[in-house]
Design goal:
mainly alpha; about 80% helix; FANCD2
Length: about 60
């Protein structure tokens, strides 16, 4: 499960809208049907979210 979640997080960070949407849909489905298996890896999603948030904040300052 860690590899699957990690791959989805990698696709979320790709910057391509379709890839991001598909990965988020898959993650949502995994959480809905396999919460206990996915929960330990939620930190991967949070870290990617934090990275994306910081990067988007910095884009206008360069």
């Amino acid at each position: 499960m860690q590899e699957i979640v990690g791959n989805m997080v990698e696709h979320i960070g790709s910057g391509f809208e379709a890839e991001i949407d598909a990965s988020l849909d898959i993650l949502a489905d995994l959480v809905t049907h396999h919460l206990n298996k996915v929960a330990p890896f939620a930190i991967l999603v949070k870290v990617q979210y934090n990275i994306d948030t910081v990067c988007h904040s910095c884009e206008g300052t360069v």
